[in-house]
Amino acid sequence: MTVSLIILAALLAVGLPLYLHHRWENRRRTAQGIKTEEVQEPVQECCGLHMTCEKDSLLVAVSPEVVYYDDEELDIFKGRTPDSYSDEEIEIFRDVLFTMLPKDIAGWARSLQLREISMPEIVREELLMIVSEARNNRNNEIK
């Protein structure tokens, strides 16, 4: 019982002054017109710390999280080989690919890999061309 009272007294002795200082500092900043909490927007560009941009990476290891891009209908193709698709099924993949925002395409490819969905070879080639073109455009803008 004595030990718990000592711990409680120590917490109050340290915590109360810290709490009061925090409140005083927030009031001072508000009076000066300084925002007490600034929300930082997520970085939209690549950070430059990696050989390739993680946003554009097609590697599954970059993001192990499965993200759906309004493409749940593709789950029926789980486990299929790239050469086993009919023309109609290839068009389903194309429809999803061509209606996506360019910034989401690499993430979509990672998502398909994580969901064990192999896309048709022709669609994969189109996807690689789109991602490559987006990388080149971004690199040209940086220069």
Summarize the structure in words.
- The protein has 4 helices and no strands.
- It folds into 2 domains: 1-34; 60-142, no CATH class.
- The longest helix is centred in the first third of the chain and has 31 residues, at 2-32.
- The protein has 143 residues and is mainly alpha-helical.
Short description:
The chain has 143 residues and is mostly helical.
Kindly list the characteristics that best describe this protein.
single chain, 143 residues, 4 helices
Poorly predicted regions are: 38-45, 47-52
> Could you tell me the strand content as a percent range?
under 5%
| Broad structural category | mainly alpha
* DSSP, total strands: 0
Number of domain units: 2
Radius of gyration from the alpha-carbon trace, in angstroms: 26 Å
Helix content, binned percent:
40-55%
DSSP helix count? 4
The end-to-end span amounts to 68 Å
Sheet with most strands: none
Gross morphology? elongated
Order of helices and strands: HHHH
